């Protein structure tokens, strides 16, 4: 099974994360299938490769909770399900 999850990068006290598609059995810094985004919590910046993310979601990849929150904030699920209303 493939998951979309965060991979820690950067240095001590200055963490940044890559959003990667990775096998569930791999460890956090393990070999990823593809890099699909970047998240910097300190500067609150996000860069996403939306076509690659949509490809993995359509193939059945499951995002982790934190990655799902990032996708909701950016609006990735609106592109995946354009006719569905969002409930709060």
UniProtKB/TrEMBL annotation:
One of its GO terms (biological process) is mitochondrial translation. It is found in: Plastid, Chloroplast. The keyword Plastid applies. PROSITE patterns: RIBOSOMAL_S16 (PS00732). Its main location: plastid. The keyword Metal-binding does not apply. It comes from the Eukaryota. SUPFAM superfamilies: Ribosomal protein S16. Keywords: Chloroplast, Plastid, Ribonucleoprotein, Ribosomal protein. One of its GO terms (molecular function) is structural constituent of ribosome. InterPro entries: Ribosomal_bS16, Ribosomal_bS16_CS, Ribosomal_bS16_dom_sf. Pfam families: Ribosomal_S16. GO terms for cellular component: chloroplast; mitochondrion; small ribosomal subunit. Belongs to the bacterial ribosomal protein bS16 family. HAMAP family: Ribosomal_bS16 (MF_00385). PANTHER family: 30S RIBOSOMAL PROTEIN S16 (PTHR12919), SMALL RIBOSOMAL SUBUNIT PROTEIN BS16M (PTHR12919:SF20). This is 30S ribosomal protein S16, chloroplastic. The gene is rps16.
């Amino acid at each position: 099974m493939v998951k979309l999850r965060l991979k820690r990068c950067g240095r001590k006290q200055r963490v940044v994360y890559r959003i990667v598609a990775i096998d569930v059995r791999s460890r956090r810094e393990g070999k990823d299938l593809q890099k699909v985004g970047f998240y910097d919590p300190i500067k609150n910046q996000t860069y996403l490769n939306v076509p690659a993310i949509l490809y993995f979601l359509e193939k059945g990849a499951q995002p982790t909770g934190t990655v799902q929150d990032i996708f909701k904030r950016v609006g990735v699920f609106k592109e995946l399900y354009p006719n569905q209303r969002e409930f709060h």
